[in-house]
Amino acid sequence: MIRPIKKIMVYIDGSEQSITAAQYAIVLAKTLGADLYALYVVDTRALAELVKYRIFLDTEQEEYRRDLEGDAQRYLNHVRELARKKGIPIITEKAMGAVHSEIKNKVKEFSIDLLIIGELSHIRSRRDELYNEAERAMRSVSCPVLIAKGEEKIWDLYESAE
After folding, report:
1. Residue 72 and residue 93: Cα distance in Å, rounded?
2. Closest residue by Cα to residue 106 from 2, 7, 5
3. Disulfide check for 36: which of 29, 50, 141, 161 has CB 3.0–4.6 Å away?
4. CATH number of the structural domain 7-45+71-152
5. CB neighbours of residue 25 within 10 Å
6. pLDDT (tens digit, 9 = 90+) per residue, 137-161?
7. How far is it, in rounded angstroms, from Cα 158 to Cα 24?
8. Burial grade of 157 (CB within 10 A; 0-12, 13-18, 19 or more)
9. pTM for this one?
């Protein structure tokens, strides 16, 4: 029988929803025997806009970018530890650029079969809807997308995975 899912990627953005998605991705990778990737994208496009609109000076942009890169590494390390606890190897990747574009590029680069993202935030305005990068990625990637919802159920699945 052909395995339809050989490579899973989970998008990490530092939110609780993305950590829940990572736990679910770990459970699925373990169950399916799939390779697991975790991706964090430092949104440099948003940083450039902050400078453009003079919210940040150039020097502040660089300091903030370093802070974001540090956050990215901390979250990827956390996900790596979650996977290690369940005996799952994971490849972590940090990218820089526009979030939806980088997700799309990495899905293609690694020939990902399933992208897992955390539950989408509630849309409060048209503007929020236009700028939801995870949703834009979900609509543009070339593979199936799973939205991980149900934090308690996923936690139970993660905890019971051996």
Report:
1. 9
2. 7
3. 29
4. 3.40.50.620
5. 32
6. 888 899 999 999 999 999 999 999 9
7. 7
8. middle
9. 0.85
